[in-house]
Every structure is written in C-alpha cells, then in structure tokens.
Write a structure and sequence with these properties.
It contains ten helices and eight strands. By secondary structure, it is α/β, with parallel strands linked by helices. It has a single domain, classed as Alpha/Beta hydrolase fold, catalytic domain (Rossmann fold). α4 links the parallel β5 and β6.
Length: about 290
C-alpha cells in the first residue's frame, strides 16, 4: 500500500499577548481567500481535518486553524502552574486578532464553532471591518448553564474523560462512528481545567443576549449554521439570536450536531459550500461594482 501524504502544513508562530509571548500552533492547507477556523471548547484544530483535506474547499480557500494557548499543541505560557485558565471575551478576541496580525491575514473569512461560534458574535459586534464575512457554527448569544463545569476540574474526576462523556450526547447518532469517536478522542486529551475554563466564557462571562441587536450585517455579512441535533446550542437558540440581528442568515443543518466539521465532515462541507460561494460572489460583485 502506498503512503498517503496529506497536503496540510503545521507550524508555530510567536506573538505577544498580555505582556507575554505566545507560541501558537496552527495548521493550514490550500490557497486563496483566508478561511480562519476556530475550534470548540477544550479541543483543538484537529476538528477541522476534513476541511483541511477537502480540495473542493482548499482549491479556492486558504484554510487556517490554530490551537488556542493551553489547547492542543499550543502550550501554556511559562508560569502556568500558578494560574488557572479562564477564557474571557476580551482575551479571546485579542488572541484571534493577534494571530491574524502575526500571519498578516487581510480580511479573512472567520468561522468558529461553539465557543468559536459565540466569539464570532463578539467579532461581528466590535471588529466587523477586519473580516470579509463571519460564519458562526452552533452559535447563539447565550447558553443556559445546565451543569456546573467546576467538577470537570475536580482532582477526583478524570476531567478529559468526563468532558468527552459530556459532549457525546451533543453529536448526531447518525454521524459516522469513526468521526464521532475521533471527536471524543480530542476531548479525552485536553489539559486539566482547560474545558472548564473555556466554559466560563461560554456559559457565564460571554453572554451577549443584550448586545447582539447592535450587530450591523451591512458592514460584514453574518451567517449562522446550526446542526439540528444539539441541546447546547439548539436550532431555536440560533434562530432566536438571528431574530435580533437584521440581515443575519440562518441555515439549520439536518443530520448534524454540535461538532459538524468533525463529527461528519462530508455532510458539513455540503452545507458550507453554498455559504462560501455566496460570500465569494458577493465580494466579487462588490469589486466589480
């Protein structure tokens, strides 16, 4: 059997954040319009392996995904043993913008899922002009705190395994078994306290239900794509959010759950392509006009 070499490149970039240097791992594939992908809570860029290896995407887009500090291959900064990871809206946005500046990305399309989908709303509110378009996956302005994530970091709990068990029910049972279990494996490898720290942003600090009405989609188009099989960010949650944002476009994706890009990459790509084609067409029409 001949070896298969994937067209994905992994590298590290160093940039300043909060007075310290971050060493951040990222992967990219393809060329063309930058498509910046943001992973879910407690996970990393491996969730976007399907997009990174899809010629139908990479022939026209430069797909880029990076691990937040403390996640995946991005180690915590020196002194982490004396800190507790707790993600906030300001920190999240600053890290995204710092990464973009370090790679000199000019008006990329940004696409994030779950916590990444939430921060897409922050970006639409406060930094819309820096993006060509914004795509929120499993995105809603607020999420009920239906469990206390503190126990995920309890010393008597296997946090990564418990985290995987928590998110298992968020995936569509009809998604391919191998892809569902690979998604869970990513969660089983998370650092202690990282998932809980991300959920602080998702469930507490990052609530935008009183702000999203100020998003102006005339500045930058906003697309919200949500899988039908998800109780953390249900289709109704996304539709309620979109109802507050004039011009926001919603797609409810059948047969997909909270991790569409990793639990069923092929089905997700079929849902994403029309959105990307619309963004490209609108951009080209604007240039022509």
């Amino acid at each position: 059997m001949n070896a298969i070499l994937e067209p994905v490149t992994g590298r590290y970039v160093h940039f300043e954040h909060g007075g310290r240097t971050c060493r951040v791992y990222f992967e990219e594939s393809g060329q063309g319009i930058p498509l910046l992908c943001l992973h879910t809570a407690g996970a990393d860029t491996r969730q976007f392996r399907g997009l990174l290896n899809a010629p139908v995407i990479t022939d026209q887009f430069r797909v880029i995904a990076f691990d937040l500090p403390w996640h995946g291959k991005s180690s915590p900064p020196a002194g982490w043993q004396s800190e507790t990871w707790r993600l906030t809206s300001a920190t999240y946005c600053e890290l995204i913008l710092g990464f973009m500046q370090a790679l000199e990305l000019n008006k990329p399309i940004v696409m994030g899922c779950s916590i990444g989908g939430r921060v897409c709303l922050n970006l639409a509110l406060d930094y819309a002009t820096k993006f060509r378009a914004i795509i929120g996956l499993q995105s809603a302005a607020g999420t009920p705190r239906y469990y206390d994530p503190a126990w995920l970091a309890h010393p008597e709990v296997n946090g990564p395994v418990a985290g995987a068990a928590t998110v298992m029910g968020l995936m569509c049972p009809d998604s391919p078994e191998a892809d569902r279990w690979e998604t869970l494996w990513h969660y089983m490898q998370g650092g202690p306290g990282v998932f809980a720290g991300d959920l602080y942003f998702y469930q507490v600090e990052g609530d935008l239900r009183r702000r999203v009405e100020n998003i102006d989609t005339r500045v930058t188009p906003l697309y919200l794509l949500t899988g039908e099989y998800d109780y953390s960010c249900s289709p109704q949650d996304t539709q309620d959010t979109a109802a507050q944002i004039p011009g926001a476009q919603v797609r409810i994706m059948p047969g997909l759950g909270h991790f569409p890009m990793s639990e069923n990459p092929q089905a997700f790509i079929s849902e994403l392509l029309p959105v990307l084609n619309e963004i490209v067409a609108a951009h080209e029409a604007g240039i022509a006009g």
